[in-house]
Prior knowledge:
Blueprint: H1 5-32, E1 36-37, H2 39-46, H3 50-62, E2 66-68, E3 75-77, H4 79-90, H5 94-97, H6 99-109, E4 112-119, E5 122-129, E6 144-145, H7 151-159, H8 163-175, H9 178-181, H10 189-200, E7 203-206, E8 213-221, E9 227-236, H11 249-262
Antiparallel strand pairs: 1-3, 2-3, 4-5, 4-9, 5-6, 7-8, 8-9
Amino acid sequence: MTTSPSTARVADRRQRVQSAEMGLSxxxxxxxxxxxxxxxxTAAEVDESPAKVHRYLASLCQQGFVEQSPVNQHYYLAQxxxxxxxxxxxxxxxxxxxEASLQRLRQALEVTAFxxxxxxxxxxxxxxxxxxxxxxxxxxxxxxxxTLWSATGRVFLGFSSDxxxxxxxxxxxxxxxxxRRSQLDGTRPVEQLRQQVRARGWAMANDSLLKGxxxxxxxxxxxxxxxxxxxxxxxxxxxxxxxxxxxxxxxxLQEARLISRAMGYQGNPG
Length: 270
């Protein structure tokens, strides 16, 4: 029986699609294996025969996506793959990538949610979502929050390696009233707060920044493992669930993980 031209074209397109999917699977396998691996390891990662994977690796080498080391014969991601990765990194904006998370938190929990980054004056709110009946609080896009007394600032304090962030906290402590100082524990309150936040994986503020307002905040990490933003939820104290296993904290941490993954982070944000 003769195959019609249209049927042949459909079969050809299907084969090309399948070939493209397999080629991408091989590239993703190399990525998961650290960017370089032997033929055997790559084949095992995609659960295909080495002979089949070798054909795709040869094609990827011809196109500049993969190269083979003359020393150990391992395959590694090459210039074209690097170019794609760099282009993707340039698109990594935690505020843009976090918009869906803000909306989900607002809708599911009826809380105010916002994303902030660390600026030269402190943690700065850039994007905010409020519920239908928002909590009356003087925080808006552009607001700069305390490094020491806000949940947002505490996340940057706990996870940032930038000495300037620690200096901001130390200065706030030196200028704080005795009443505010009493809210912190220990003889080295800034360092102890840093350790506490890192151990938890998130930060909490209970009436410490604004009376009647409580907040939970979680870090967002970039592809290099550095904290690049903070995802925060807040609400009226008394009606805002601060428990680690309550309604808010697990949802907040999950959304922070999703944004971190979209940013290229491969670790465990907490």
